[in-house]
Amino acid sequence: MSVEIRPLAKSDEAEWRRLWTGYLTFYETTVPEEVYRTTFERLTSGNEHEYRGFIAELDGKPVGLTHYLFHRHCWSIENVCYLQDLFADPEVRGKGIGRALIEAVHAQATKAGAHSVYWTTNQNNAAARQLYDRIAKVTPFIKYVKAV
To answer: Could you tell me if 99 and 54 are in contact, meaning their C-beta atoms sit under 8 angstroms apart?
Structure first.
């Protein structure tokens, strides 16, 4: 089996929707159609200040995605890279798709001169955390959110 990681393209919209819906379903949430449209437009805009995305293909079939963003950070001069979403179809988990997507983001961050790549996950996401614990360092920070 051959895994290819490539930038998200406008022609990927249908498969991207399928994959992102799977991601949202995993986290037991949904978003309105307007958010789907706007997010995909942003991901494929080419604007340096917008999110970017990768698609993972296994033998030519899209099976995973990731979204990431470069942003400034007050603790370093260099930007940092936030990996927001990471998803692989359930039937291909354990085949290196998640790791390949993370490594592709890491390579882009290195190329861009970013200080680091970081992400969050649900504390109960044991399967993903097995991978994350092997390739990155868990931090002691706890995330808080206050809705507006």
So the answer is: no
- The whole-model pTM stands at 0.95
Residue 71, Cβ density class (10 Å: 0-12 exposed, 13-18 middle, ≥19 buried): exposed
DSSP-derived secondary structure for 4-23: EEEE--GGGHHHHHHHHHHH
Amino acid type, 35: V
pLDDT in tens, 15-27: 999 999 999 999 9
Beta bridge partners of 117: 81
Q: What's the average model confidence in pLDDT over 62-91?
A: 97
- In whole angstroms, what is the distance from residue 51 CA to residue 8 CA? 11
